[in-house]
Amino acid sequence: MFKIQHSPARLKLLAAVGILLLVSCSPEPVSTPIADTEPELSADLIIENGRLYSMAWPEPSAEGVPAASAPFSNGVWSPDAQAIAIKDGVILAIGSTSEMSEFKGSATEVVDVHGASIMPGFVDTHTHIEELGATLDDVDLKGVQTEVEAVERVVRHIAANDIPAGQWIVARGWDEGQWADRFPSHDLLSASVPNNPVLMDGMNGFGAWGNQLAMAAAGITADAQDPVGGEIIRDANGAPTGAVRNRGVALYREAVPPLSMERLENRLVNGLRIMQDSGFTAVHHAGVNTELMAAYESLASKDMLPIRVNAMISGRDKALMSQWITRGPTRFAGDKLFVQSVKGYYDGSLGARGAKLLEEYSDRPGHFGVSGEEYGFFTEEIGAMLLAGFQVNIHAIGDGGNREVLQFFRDNFAIDPEMKALRNRIEHAQVVHPDDFAVYDELDVIASVQPPFVAEDKVWTVDRIGLDRAAGAYAWRTFRRHNVPLVFGSDLMGYDWSIFYGLHSAITRQSTDSQPPGGWFPEEKLTAEETIRGYTVNASYANFTENETGMLKEGMWADITVLDQDVFATVAQDPAHLLDGKVLMTIVGGDVVYRQ
Ligand SMILES: [Zn+2]
Prior knowledge:
- By secondary structure, this protein is α/β, with parallel strands linked by helices.
- The chain is built from 19 helices and 27 strands.
C-alpha cells in the first residue's frame, strides 16, 4: 500500500534539500497537530522529513555493486523514503512525509528530523558491556599526570558518590609506560583515603599500587613472596611500597571482592545506556559468566534492559555451559535478551604475539603464538554446546588459530550436519590463510570483525606477520568474494565504539588522521552499503532476528537510529567527514531511548 513513488526529479530535490540540512539538524518534537478526523490506524510515533534508507533491498554483489533494485542510480544513492510510522513497537508503514500523515491521530507524537537520516538500528556485534559500565562507577585515571592528581580524583569520587567506609574503590588508567621510573608508593593514598581499600590499576595491566587497606587485603606484606612473573616493589628496608609490577597486579585484583548483584546490574545498565546514547539498538556481549548472566536475567525479568542484548555464554565457564545445555537456546520475553550462543577462546592477540600463526612470527623467530586447550579452549564442552543447538562464536586471530577452529567446526559437523545451520562465527577472523576463505564458505561460518582494528593495528601488523601474510589480514573484500557474511563490532573497551569510527575504518581502512593515503591494503575496502549491512542486516542474521529487525520494513520491530548525516552522501563526498557525525535519536521497539 505504501510503496514509495517519488518521481526522479522529486528524489533529486529531496536529496538536495537533505544535503543542505545536514549542517544543522536536530530533531525537535513538534506539537501534535489536531487531526480533523481520527485516522483508522493512528501511529504512536511518526518520524518525518528525513532521509530514510530502509536497507530492505537485496545484497550487493561480491564486488560491492548495488543490486538492481537498490535506490542507486548513475552512481548516486538516494533515500528510499522520508518518514516512518510506528505503532505498538513495530513499523506500521514507511513512505513520504505526506503519506505518513495519514496515520496522525490526536495521540500521535510527531518528530520532524529536518533532513537527518533514518537508518535501521545499528548493532555492535562484539562488546564487553560490563567493562564499559565500570567506567562510570570506577575512577577514571586516564590522562593524570601526577600522583597528587590521581589521588585527588579518588578522594573526589568518594565524596561525590557518598561511598561507605570499607567499600573497595577501583581506579584505573594511569600510564605505566610514562610512569615506569616513578611508580608511586602507598603513603599519600593511605593518608588521603584511610577508610576504603583502593586499587590504582594501570592502563595496560602491567602496574598498580594500593593503599594500606588494599595492601593488607592483597597480602602485600614484608614477608610476601614475589608472585611468578611479577614483582612487589620494596623500599631500601625490604618493606613493600604498595606498588607492584606485571603479575603482581593480580594480587590486588584478586583481593577486590565480587560486586553485589545490585551493583552488577547497575554496571550493565550503565554500559547499555552508553551504547544506546551512541546509536546502538542492540549489542552482542562476547563472553558472559555466571554472575553477569544472572544480572542480565534479572534485568530482563524486570524489563530494565534499555536495548537488546545477545549474551554469549562464556566458553570458559563450564558450570554455566552445562546449565544452559539443560535450558537450551532461549529468547526471553520482551525480546530484549537472547541467550543462544557461546563465546569460545581459541588463541591470543596479534599485538602481544599470542595469536597462533601457521609460520613463525616475522618479528620473533621460532615463535608461533598459543592456542587450543593450553590456552583455555574446552574442545569437548564447546562441542557439547553445538550439539545442544547453541551457536558457537570462537575467538581466533592468527591464521593457525583460524585454521584449527575451522577444523574444530568440521570435526563437529561430521557428528551432526545440522550444527552447520547454527550460524557459527569466528570472532576477529584477523589473519586468514588464502586457502581458508573457501573453508569459511564451505562450513557456513560468519566472520565477525572489528573495523577499528585496522585503523589502529596497522602500525605493527606488518612487523608481526610480514607483507605477504598482511595481505590476508582484515581481508574483508576477500571474505565477501568467498560469500562469507561479515558482521561488525568494536570489541570495546579496547577500541572506540563510535558507529562513525567503525564505518570510517571499514570504508577507508585509514586511521582518523586519514593515514595511510588511499587506505591500508585498499583492495580490501568495503562500500558504505556493505559496511552498514554489517552493522544492521547481517548483525540481525547473526542473532537469528533477521525477520524482526535489521531493516526498516512494515511489520518489523521499530529499531531505528537517526543520524545527523547521510552516510551514503558523506562517503560519496569525503569519507573523512564521517568522523564528524552525531547520533540524534535511538529507538528500540518503538521506544525513544535516546534523543539528543
Ligand atoms: Zn572481545
